[in-house]
Amino acid sequence: MRQKIVAGNWKMNNTLDEGLKLTSEIVNMVSDEVNTDVKVILAPPFVYLTQVKGLIKDADKISLSAQNCNDNESGAYTGEVAASMLASIGTEYVILGHSERREYFEETNEQLAKKIDLALKNNLKPIFCCGESLEVRENGLFKEFVSNQIEESLFHLGEDELKKVVIAYEPIWAIGTGKTASTEQAQEMHASIRELLAERYGAEIAEEISILYGGSCKPGNAPELFACKDVDGGLIGGASLKSRDFVDIIKSF
Ligand code: PEP
Q1: C-alpha Rg value of the chain to the nearest Å
Q2: CB–CB of 170/215 below 8 Å?
Q3: Rounded distance from Cα 75 to ligand 1 centre (Å)
Q4: CA–CA gap between residue 10 and residue 43 (Å, rounded)
Q5: 156 classed as catalytic
Q6: What number of other Cβ atoms are within 10 A of residue 182's Cβ?
Q7: Per-residue pLDDT at 1
Q8: Helix (H, G, I), strand (E, B) or coil at 197
Q9: Of 141, 146, 121, the residue nearest 131 (C-alpha)
Q10: 167: helix, strand or coil
Q11: Catalytic residue among 98, 100, 132, 190
Q12: CATH number for the domain whose boundaries are 4-250
């Protein structure tokens, strides 16, 4: 049975007080209202990780994620954060390859492969993001594009390593735009990703990997997206900043 996951990526939002209030609300609502077997992940900015960790420590359904890590072990990289540092403060997951990182910070598939390795080496579970732009969607080569992202960043991993990775399919044209992929579009791509994993690692392992959908996921559309056979949950941006919306998305399973 694949792990169902809803992860909230706060991006560069919230002051400390706002972030802790949001966390407390989510902790209380999840405890009172969520009785399904779902993993909830909060990904606040680096500076709040320790405080958020303090608030979720007794919430067994809720885990902590960072939004990025550097592709070097340590050293003279001013302003950067290493995977080992995240692990040392009790972070469990790390989002890697978000389209905003790829676009604004020019992260490449090759660089992401190095980040994946460092995350795994430090016992962090990567949430690996992939997805195509509108231009690629419209030229029809979106499956090839996403396959290439996955092959170049993940396919050097052994089976046991791959099993620790969560994949998030996030069509860039749907992120923060209010446009969501249709259930058919989401299911088609998720099935294609699972097929790709099966070709490389075998069907049994492909069946175990959680593949999340991301892109304007909200309480209104989450139930139908999460009902798709190969959609195992969501990576949520905007709607993760409102506790009610985020918890309603979690309750969509
Ligand atoms: C995201 O950035 O990962 C995302 C899915 O954002 P939004 O939910 O706001 O589209």
Answers
A1: 17
A2: yes
A3: 32
A4: 6
A5: no
A6: 11
A7: 82
A8: helix
A9: 146
A10: strand
A11: 98
A12: 3.20.20.70
Helix ranges, 202-236 (H):
203-208, 222-226
Instruction: Give Cα separations from 24 to 50, 92, 109, 217, 237 (angstroms).
Output: 14, 19, 36, 22, 18
DSSP single-letter state for residue 78:
T
Tokens in use for 141?
């080569």
Q: Which amino acid is at 37?
A: D
161 counts as catalytic: no
230: tokens are 């190969």
Residue whose CA is closest, atom 1 of ligand 1? Answer: 237
Profile the chain (253 residues) by mean pLDDT over runs of 10 residues.
96 98 98 97 98 97 98 98 98 98 97 98 98 94 97 98 98 88 96 98 98 96 97 98 98 95
The pair of structure tokens assigned to 139 is 């030229």
| Amino acid letter, 93 | Y
60 Cα to the center of ligand 1, angstroms: 25
Helices 49-56 & 16-33, crossing angle to 10 degrees? 20
